[in-house]
Amino acid sequence: MRLFQNFSLYVMWIGVLTVLHSADAAPIAERPDILMIVVDDLRPMLGCYGDARIRTPNIDRLARHGVLFERAYCQYAKCGTSRLSLMTGLRPDSIGVFSNRDKDVVNFRKRRPDAVSISRWLKGRGYYALSFGKIDHDGWHVDDEWSVPAAPGRDGEMLEVVDSKDVSKPTLIADRIACPVMQSPDVPDDHLFAGRMTQQVLDNLRNRDSTQPMFLAVGYRRPHLPFVAPKRYFDMHHPDETWLARNPLAAAGSPVMAWFNSDGYVGTARRVGLTMPSPPNREQAIQWNGYEMRSYLGVPNHGQIETSLQLRLLQAYAACVSYVDAQVGRILDELESTKKLNSTLIVFCTDHGWHLGEHSAWGKMTNFEIATRVPMIIAGPGFEAGRTRKIAELVDLYPTICDMAGVAKPDHLQGESLIPALTEPEESNDSIALSQYARFGTKYTGRALRTDRYRFVVWDAKKGGETVHRELYDHDSDPDETVNLASKEEHRELVRTLESQLREAFLRNVK
Ligand SMILES: [Ca+2]
User: Fold this and answer.
1) What distance in Å separates the CA atoms of residue 397 and residue 400, rounded to the nearest whole number?
2) What is the pLDDT averaged over residues 6-29?
3) Average pLDDT in the 327-355 region?
4) For residue 312, what is the DSSP state?
5) DSSP per residue, 471-511
6) Closest C-alpha among 188, 191, 226, 436 to residue 317
7) How far, in Å, is the centroid of ligand 1 from the Cα of 293?
8) DSSP state of 71
């Protein structure tokens, strides 16, 4: 009976759309405006996720207005691949791009011309598709996927810093190895890119052609490194030792490749005359871990990061999040004042989580909960605000947006529409999340399965396909993933079951 009720609600909500798979359910004039906000490197350390240490009143406001996914996961904890997956609706194994090299993306697009991005798809279905800031990875966007070419400044802004001699001067783009890890200039919001970009977004909203539905994608780069935000956002946060990672040690019994996220930075270290051990032993890996952050000025290239510096880094991360939150607030205010807030479909997410010292790591690029779990909020007409513990994935957003917009879905999508979770957030289900990460180039790949209770990871060698490591974390007893249980005799049967579930799920999703 329960199944039937769910099903009828589902059909009621999306009407004939799923039945007539290839047809658009809603006439163009009735399709809602869509606002997609993607914040870079944002872990769910937010008030609406039960952690009020970082001040995010506006994201919290959006969460009260929509449905918050408590357990949403990225497919790949690195910007480029995660965003390609989000925008194309394909999983990383189908995309085959695991680095930030442009030629891999070019090859992917040649190999999979059917993998139409959501911007191109919506544009082809009557939407005015507009993007600001970082939506695709730098340099990977394609102008004709949007109704007008990308907004200015989108590729150079990541390493934006202020002139330290005179912060009121126009901002500069730093060389990576000469870029300070943090800056807290006493400047107005719009002196930095995120503020200026937000003003452009508002201008576009005010001057838009309202006869055509709009797909507006806004990508904020902060809190990606370097941590640069106006001083007043630093002044809001005063981290003490309770902010330090609860699990600063590499998980007991875990392989180095599980948490060593510096393997792609050997060349970056060489640029400053350092030789990073590759592959490192366990002790070396701990010393060199988090090199993405260590490559900026103001953090030791290797070795211990003193507590006082950790607290300043936490303050700086928090400041960047609050700065972005304020910009999100400006967009919400605009929608509210023009009475568009309730009729706009709003999707808020990031590309992956971020280690702030957990598992000896800083940054992303692991398969742990801390790097794969993401904030995800969906708000829009037709369903009530709430929260759900149903497991969701970023790859689900593409089909969800299509369903909610009343447009057909392309055939290549690998995620599943989240409409059932939005209409019945309380209902439990047995959904899973799949994430993966390639380590030491693509020499090894770790594939992770998140079930209701467990995180299970297998690491396979590219050459020969041998499984070199397994990880099992029990979230009922160990939510911080501090002990790898995979080799325990008493879990042998569980490991076997999870491994067969994992392999079947990944195989099913490759095409
Ligand atoms: Ca990112």
Assistant:
1) 5
2) 56
3) 97
4) H
5) EEEETTT-TT--B--TT-GGGHHHHHHHHHHHHHHHHHT--
6) 226
7) 13
8) E
Centre of ligand 1 from the C-alpha of residue 41, in Å: 4
Contact 201, 132 (CB under 8 A): yes
Please report whether residue 58 resides in a domain.
Answer: yes
The closest of 73, 105, 186 to 457, measured between CA atoms, is 73
Q: How far is the CA of 54 from the centre of ligand 1 (A)?
A: 19
Q: How far apart are CA 221 and CA 265, in angstroms?
A: 21
CATH number at 409 reads 3.40.720.10
Distance 179 CA to ligand 1 centre (A): 18
Residue 436, domain member (yes or no): no
Kindly give the distance from the C-alpha atom of residue 308 to the centroid of ligand 1, in angstroms, as a whole number: 26
A 10 A CB-CB count for 125 gives: 19
Cα–ligand 1 centroid distance for 343 (angstroms)? 29
Q: How many domains does the chain divide into?
A: 1
Tell me what the mean pLDDT of segment 276-297 comes to.
97
Cα 36 to averaged position of ligand 1 atoms, centre (Å): 16
pTM equals 0.95
Model pLDDT, residue 22: 61
Task: In whole angstroms, give the CA distance from residue 346 to residue 35.
Answer: 5
> How high is the pLDDT of residue 214?
97
The b/e string for 152-163 (b: 16+ C-beta within 10 A; e otherwise) is eebeebbbbbbe
Q: Quote the domain boundaries for residue 74.
A: 2-236+306-431
Residues pairing with 76 in the sheet: 436
- Report the separation in Å between the CA atom of 38 and the middle of ligand 1, taken as the mean of its atom positions: 10
pLDDT of residue 184: 98
Q: How far is the CA of 226 from the centre of ligand 1 (A)?
A: 12
Look at residue 195 and tell me if it is in a domain: yes
Query: Which token pair is 469?
Result: 């490591």
E-assigned strand segments in 127-242: 128-133, 160-161, 172-173, 182-183, 214-220, 227-228
Cα–Cα distance, 327 to 188 (Å, whole number): 12
DSSP line for 320-367: HHHHHHHHHHHHHHHHHHTT-TTTSEEEEEES---EESGGG-EES-S-
Strand partners of residue 377: 68, 348
Tell which wins on pLDDT, 430 or 92.
92
Q: Residue 101 is encoded by which pair of tokens?
A: 């090299």
Question: Residue 30 has what pLDDT?
Answer: 87
Residue 375 pLDDT greater than 90, yes or no: yes
444 in a structural domain: no
DSSP 150: P
Cβ atoms of 430 and 437 within 8 Å: the answer is: no
* Identity of residue 344: T
Confidence of residue 204 (pLDDT cuts 50, 70, 90): very high
Contacts of 265 (CB under 8 A, 6+ apart): 276, 291, 292, 295
Q: Please report which confidence band the pLDDT of residue 155 belongs to, taking 50, 70 and 90 as the band edges.
A: low
The angle subtended at Cα 139 by Cα 134 and Cα 144, nearest 5°, is 85
Q: How far is the CA of 228 from the centre of ligand 1 (A)?
A: 16
